[in-house]
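Figure 2 data, in text form.
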Amino acid sequence: MRIVQLISFGLAALSLTSCFKDEAPNAECDITKAWVHIDNWERLFFNVSDTAKNVLYSDANIIFAVKPDSDITALAPMFELTPGATITPSNGSTQDFSRGPVKYTVTSEDGKWSRDYYVSFSLPKIPLEYEFEDCIVYTDVSKATYNKWYEQCETGSNTTAQIEVFANANSGYALSNVKSPVENYPSVSDTGYSGKGVRLTTCSTGAWGELVQRPLAAGNFFIGEFDVSQALKNTLHTTRMGRPFDRKPLKVTGMYKYKAGEVFWRYRDETIEKHPEIKDRAAIYASFYRNRDKSGDEVILFGEDCKTNPHIIGYAEMPTVPETDTWTPFEMTFNYSEDIDYDILAKQGYSLTVVFTSSTDGAYYEGAPGSTLCIDNVKIICE
C-alpha cells in the first residue's frame, strides 16, 4: 500500500508527489516498480539487481545505473503502476535514452490526475563539494511547501543531471502541519557561512504527533533518500542512507554552528517526559559501506543500523558537536575496518552517506525542541 495507507490515519494533508483524492484509491497515479529485461544483462549493468528498482513515491526521477559507454539507444523499461493507472509512452515500448531522460506520464484510472516521471540510464557521480546554493521551495499536492536541495551531478558522456543528493524529513513533518511556513520546517535554507547554508531544527509535531506517537521531529540532512510511506509504520526506515560512490573517502570537512534547545524531551509510554537537566546533542558522521551482500542483493542503511551495519567498512564521526554561535570548522577522518576492493569500487559496489542531525536520538523521539544545527561548505576529501 502507498499513500492511501496514510490517508486511513486521517491524514488528508498527505504530502509529496503522489496523485490522489482522499476518497478514491483509483485516483492514484504512481509508478511503484520499474525494470528492464535484456539479454546478457552484464553488457549494461554492474549487478543483476540493478535491472529493477522499487520506486518511492517521492521519486520523480528514476535512474538505472549502467556501465560507462553502454548502448542505451533502444531499451524498453516496464513499470508496475497503482491500480487502474495508465502510462504514456506505453509500458514496455522501446525508447532511445541516449539523448537524456525520457518523460513518462502516468494517468489515474478516473482520468482526473496525472504525474510525470523522468527515466534515464546513466551513471551519476555525486559531487565532492556542497555549498547548498541550489535550493528550491517545493509545493506538494497537499499544498504543503518546504525546501529541497539539488546538486548538479555528472552522468557520463559530458552530461549532467540535477539530483537530490542530500535528503531530509520535511515531507514527513508536513503530515503534522500542512500549513506550516517554509521557515518553520526542520530543514530549511538559511544564511550560511558563505551564501546559503542549511539550518536543521528539532521541532514539536504538536497534537498530531502525540496522536500518532511521534511527538518530535529532529532536523536531519543526509546523503540518501527519505521514504515518507514508512512515516507511520517504521520511522527508522524512512531514512534510506547512502548513494553509490566510486572513490575512497578520507575525510569530511565543513562549517557548522550549534545551539541545544532548552528542555530535553523523552517519549515513554505515550507520554512526553521533560528533562531540563539533560543536554541535547547534535550528530555529524559518515558511513562508507558495501551496497551488495554476498547474494548480490542491495544493502541500504536505515536509522537503526547506520553506524553498526556489518557491511560498513569505513566510518567517520565528530565525537562531540560543541555549541557555538559562530561558524566553526569541523573535520572528521574515516577509520577503515578492512581494505577497499578497488574492482568493486569501480563497479559502484560501495555507497557513502554523510549525516547531520540537530538531535542525535531524534529518530527515537528524544531531543530538545529548538535545538539548531547549521551547516555549510561541506567537502568530501578522497584518496
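Caption note: The mean pLDDT is 90.
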